[in-house]
Amino acid sequence: MKQTNNSERGVHISPWEKSFDKVITPFEEFIHRQTTSGMLLMGTAILALVLANSALSGFYSNLQHMMISISIGSWSLEKSLHHWVNDGLMALFFFVVGLELKREMMVGELADMRKAALPMIAAVGGMLAPAFIYLGFNPVGEAARGWGIPMATDIAFAIGALVLLAHRVPKSLITFLVALAIVDDLGAVAVIAVFYTDTLVYDALFMALGLLGLLIAFNMAGIRRISPYAIVAVFLWYFLLKSGVHATIAGVLGAFTVPAIPKYDPERFSQQMKNLMARFDKSYRPGESILTNIEMRSVVQTLENGILKVEAPLQRLEHAWHLPVAFLVVPIFALFNAGIPLQLGSLSETLSHPVTLGIGVGLIGGKFIGITLSSWLAIKLGVAQLPPGIRFTQIAGVSLLAGIGFTMAIFIAELGFAAQPDYLLKAKTGILAASLLSGVLGYVWLRLVGDKKE
User: Fold this and answer.
1) pLDDT band at residue 16, thresholds of 50, 70 and 90?
2) What sections of 155-293 are H helices per DSSP?
3) Whole-angstrom distance, CA of residue 50 vs CA of residue 8
4) In this structure, are strands 75-80 and 67-72 parallel, antiparallel, or unpaired?
5) Which of 8, 258, 342, 345 could form a disulfide with 4 if both were Cys (CB 3.0 to 4.6 A apart)?
6) Max CA separation in the chain (angstroms)
7) What residue ranges do the domains of the chain occupy?
8) What is the per-residue pLDDT across 65-97, written as a single tens digit (0 to 9) for each?
9) Which CATH architecture has domain 8-196+246-261+312-449?
């Protein structure tokens, strides 16, 4: 600990606390975290590939298949560590995705239909074209189940690549990509829920629907404490797991029931804070610690309670969970799912397989064709307009970055090819290769068409 200079006397600042002096917008914080998460994700994916193709491959495989059980009396739930990551931890990832979706649709880029039209139409085109291209390579059989894989965009990697070009692209282009990727996430969630559910256990499904209704009732009743939602959401996850619908959907459903309206409006909050600060100043006695001043301690506690009430629970949860999900959950998912054995002798055969080609061409070519063509049509027909400061050539560059499909694409591959390990290996190979190539092509394209700014 060190004391600052005279202009900041009375404030004790540790070296790592200087960031508190900088006020950033929620959007800037979101971009910063996605960029850092993308870098961490890349490092974890490389580590997974090293583990799967080294002397540690046996340890890596045993770790994935290690069984972990939770038991209470006669009840137990046993799954491999790999399944706990994909079905359990990833529910938190989908929870944050749900919070982001709800916020964007209420107050973000998707709230104003005039602004949202272009990224929404672009996202739909960017989902349909890759799916049709994949089905062109794999029209029938078990391989056709992978049609949803190239539809997904990895928001962390895509934004991370675009932020590297921040001095050459307008901020509105980053906003466009964020809105597009969030709509893309919504589409991926819908595809998982509707098309990657094989069999339904109706008793468990009805229990899950009842719990979802209870969460909605909490919201309608104005309950803003987090704990009731958390408890019910855990049971919702369990019954969805048993119902046959993928359990991670519980994260999105739970997020959509979290209240988005704060207890206090800004005017009421401001007045309350002024009154409390007047009491705080009045009770201050020079030389006396706040630990021994009951009045000051009470005011500080009331200040904290007021701050919580001016923040919507949705805003508070998104802020609290984005960091652990971006820096812990998603990298762990990458560690357990990106490790594929690279057999150089059969690499050409793998790369030329219809599953690999369908995903590769779908992510690179499908995203490019789907996003640019649908955007061009929307602008020409007057349904949407190009955001200020953005050229259409930059939209085309973003469509290449949208071909980075890492996290969500691998997740859908795990669902679609759970019973076909050979197809799953080829699918992951296609995802990794296409994501790398899309990132490079998108970066080079935007660097060439961008204007260098001071």
Assistant:
1) very low
2) 155-163, 171-195, 202-220, 226-243, 249-257, 266-283
3) 49
4) antiparallel
5) 8
6) 80
7) 8-196+246-261+312-449, 265-309
8) 999 998 888 888 998 999 999 888 889 988 988
9) Up-down Bundle (1.20)
